[in-house]
User: Which sequence fits this backbone?
């Protein structure tokens, strides 16, 4: 009986929230009901979510929540996973740091690859501007006085000065999941 009650509450809220969202460009990302009667609503808008956005959405949704349930409204935050069935929301995460997990074939074997960067474009493919990998090399190379052409090319590759090497595109059909992450300098 308890499980059916959760299911019916979930279905009712899902239907009602689909009529309400988007609100002020705020989109419903996920709706979950926990075993302790906690309704967890995750929201997002282009550019991110503020505490005031969460309060605003909470004030609107609280009238639809059964009395014996608790409502929590949150942003996706760090580590939020977007899977294939939700790729339609990727555009909301533009200019956000992400880690993309995708498959590639190397030496006749399918391999999962991870890339981190800022999400810059979403359509039939996803593009990210990759983070600098090695800041120590950058500092060392800046101190070098006279550099020959070979070393200059190496420096450009390491520093990511060549824009083509700094931005990668991955077809949507090869992506397994996208996960929100920190900027590397914040780790």
Assistant:
């Amino acid at each position: 009986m308890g499980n059916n009650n959760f299911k019916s509450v979930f279905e009712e809220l899902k239907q009602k929230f689909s009529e309400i969202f988007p609100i002020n460009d705020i989109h419903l990302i996920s709706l979950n009901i926990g075993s302790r009667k906690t309704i967890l609503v995750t929201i997002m808008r282009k550019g991110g979510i503020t505490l005031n956005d969460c309060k605003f959405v909470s004030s609107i949704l609280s009238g639809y929540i059964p009395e014996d349930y608790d409502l929590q409204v949150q942003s996706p935050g760090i580590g939020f996973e977007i899977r294939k069935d939700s790729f339609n929301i990727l555009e909301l995460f533009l200019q956000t740091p992400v880690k993309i997990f995708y498959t590639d074939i190397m030496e006749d074997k399918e391999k999962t690859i991870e890339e981190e960067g800022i999400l810059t474009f979403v359509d039939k493919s996803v593009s990210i501007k990759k983070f600098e990998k090695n800041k120590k090399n950058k500092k060392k190379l800046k101190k070098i006085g006279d550099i020959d052409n070979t070393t200059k090319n190496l420096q450009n590759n390491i520093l990511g000065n060549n824009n083509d090497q700094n931005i990668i595109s991955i077809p949507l059909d090869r992506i397994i999941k996208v996960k929100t992450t920190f900027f590397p300098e914040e780790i």
About this structure: Residues 37 and 68 are 7 Å apart (CA to CA).
